[in-house]
Amino acid sequence: MVNKEKINPKRFFYPPEFEKVRDLLNKNGKFTADLMIQTGARINEVRGFKDNPIFDNDRHNITLTQTKVRAKLGEKRPDPRTIPIGKTYFYQLKRDLDKHRVLSTNAFNIQLREACVKAGIPNPEQFSSHNIRKTFATWMLSLGSNAFKLAKHLGHTVAVLDKDYSTNDVFNSTDKQIMRSIWKDLPTRI
User: Fold this and answer.
1) Number of domains in the chain
2) In a domain, 91, yes or no
3) Greater confidence, 42 or 3?
């Protein structure tokens, strides 16, 4: 078990770092990382989606039935969260869902840190699956996504997004091009 104090929830991947790390993961690690960077979902949310996928073919949305969003007063379970994903990844996910599995949080975090070491990323002990969610939000904001829509997509308020996920835009044009190549058609959806 990793000491939670070492995790840096504010740390995100720069696009070249993410590409290097992703390439060093095994096939299920890549599948897990791709699902998280394409959706911005938490690892436990994508694990729940894998067991009971709900695809909206007309809108290219997926529904996450297991979410961390708190239930409203009087409810026992929170509402499912429907999120848009890019058309290209939507069809890739439908095609590949039965070929791969989403790793457990612990297995993914171990593999992620090992890949960070191999990629030469400083302080690999500071990374966990949540840093991919942070990466998703940071990249989306840097590409000009609407903060209200992004907060709703992540299951947060704008205040939480601003406090926990936003950062100064530190990306150059090459970084932004890599982001777009990773997402293909996602940034215009949120």
Assistant:
1) 1
2) yes
3) 42
Tell me the C-alpha distance between 36 and 144, whole Å.
Answer: 20
- What pLDDT was estimated at residue 2? 47
Q: Is residue 5 in a domain?
A: no
For the whole prediction, is pTM greater than 0.90? no
Instruction: Give a yes or no: residue 4 inside a domain.
Output: no
Query: Quick check: helix, strand or coil at residue 36?
Result: helix
Question: What range defines the domain where residue 56 resides?
Answer: 12-189
Q: Render the burial of 77-104: b for 16+ CB within 10 Å, e for the rest.
A: eeeebebbbbeebbeebeeebeebebbe
Long-range CB pairs of 110-113, under 8 A, 24+ apart, other chains included: 111/25, 111/26, 111/29, 112/21, 112/25, 112/29, 112/33
Residue-wise pLDDT tens digits, 123-171: 999 999 999 999 999 999 998 888 898 988 888 888 888 887 777 788 9
